[in-house]
UniProtKB/TrEMBL annotation:
The chain crosses the membrane at residues 76-96, 108-128, 134-155, 175-194, 248-269, 276-296, 302-324. It is a multi-pass membrane protein. The lineage of its organism: Bacteria, Pseudomonadati, Pseudomonadota, Betaproteobacteria, Burkholderiales. Pathway: Porphyrin-containing compound metabolism. The keyword DNA-binding does not apply. It is found in: Membrane. InterPro entries: COX15/CtaA_fam, COX15/CtaA_HemeA_synthase. Pfam families: COX15-CtaA. Keywords: Cell membrane, Disulfide bond, Heme biosynthesis, Iron, Membrane, Metal-binding, Oxidoreductase, Transmembrane, Transmembrane helix. The keyword Oxidoreductase applies. This is Cytochrome oxidase assembly protein.
């Protein structure tokens, strides 16, 4: 497989792995194997069947976090993540070996190795630290950062950066594209915080929340980073008002993102060379907003929650594409 195909394959695999990770988390399988990197010290859940059966008996049935199907979900995610890590190591090595042929700096590919190593550490901590929200959110951020960097690297292999707007508009587009990317990244972090704190169902109506446009919220503990799942920093149960605050801030963030991206879409539409980007960004944004609303009014069905995570990843790489297209020059770093 040549370098271009290798990078594209890794990008597609990362997108799929992000959706699989969301499925593992949302189906309550994140602790299906409560150790790392194996499952009860074994290579596969099948080999760990006696230990899993004992854990199931101790928790009083398969309704808890441990069961063999959940263990398989968790381990399949780990197997694919390990394969992706090896793939990225291969990409980085190839980038150095063929740097003259590729006519590209190998440092972007090399930086991916560092991100993946950190991502692997977050994956281990996610399990060993019992799903602490900050660590699980960090794991999500690491996965999406990997996807964004791979997307940029893929675009380098498939099409050169070129001018797509008159010089007087290029700088304006570039600024709006960067603002849009930052806004989406921040919103994804907020969405991760909602998901990892299980605050998605704190509001089950829309556009109101609990029948009010401004429900009771408590912010003191909602965004305290270092704490256990479902608890405040001092070990008390996290209140419903705190979960509501987390949920509502994500909704408010969505308004900011929509405003930022609409400004970008209008600017893209006004230039003949970027109208297709405007259409694509509009479609992805609309789909993501509808899925977000659907998750609220349909009480977070698993399939839609997973698709909403995938929509966030798709929106991110769409913004990476837009930023790449409106860049004024080729970046070699």
């Amino acid at each position: 497989m040549n370098y271009k195909r290798l990078v594209i394959f890794a990008t597609v695999l990362t997108f799929g792995l992000i959706m699989l990770g969301a499925y593992v988390r949302l189906s309550d399988a994140g602790l299906g194997c409560p150790d790392w990197p194996g499952c009860y010290g074994k290579l596969t859940p099948h080999l760990a069947a006696p230990e899993i059966a004992k854990a199931v008996a101790e928790q009083g049935g398969t309704h808890g976090p441990v069961s063999e199907p959940k263990a398989w979900k968790e381990m399949i995610h780990r197997y694919i993540a390990t394969f992706l890590g090896l793939l990225i190591l291969t990409i980085a090595a190839t980038a150095w070996i063929k740097r003259k042929t590729l006519n590209q700096s190998p440092w972007l590919a090399t930086s991916l190795v560092g991100v993946v190593c950190l991502q692997g550490a977050f994956g281990a901590w996610t399990v060993t630290k019992l799903l602490k929200p900050a660590i699980v959110t960090g794991h999500l951020i690491g996965g999406l950062t990997t996807l964004a960097l791979l997307m940029w690297l893929s675009l380098r292999q498939t099409s050169p950066v070129r001018t797509v707007a008159p010089p007087q508009d290029q700088k304006h587009l570039r600024i709006l594209a960067r603002i849009g990317l930052v806004a989406v990244a921040c919103q994804i972090i907020l969405g991760g915080w909602v998901s990892t704190n299980y605050a998605s169902v704190a509001c089950t109506d829309f556009p109101t929340c609990q029948g009010s446009m401004w429900p009771q919220m408590e912010f003191d503990h909602a965004f305290h980073i270092v704490r256990n799942l479902g608890e405040t920093a001092d070990g008390q149960l996290l209140s419903q008002a705190s979960l509501t605050a987390i949920h509502m801030v994500h909704r408010m963030g969505a308004v900011v993102v929509i405003a930022a991206l609409l400004s970008l879409i209008v600017a893209l539409w006004r230039n003949a060379g970027t109208q297709l980007l405007a259409v694509g960004l509009t479609a992805v944004l609309t789909l993501q907003v509808l899925m977000g609303i659907g998750n609220v009014v349909m009480h977070l069905p698993l399939w839609l929650a997973v698709l909403h995570n995938g929509g966030a990843a798709l929106l991110l790489i769409t913004l990476v594409l837009v930023n790449y297209r409106v860049a004024s020059k080729v970046h070699r770093a």
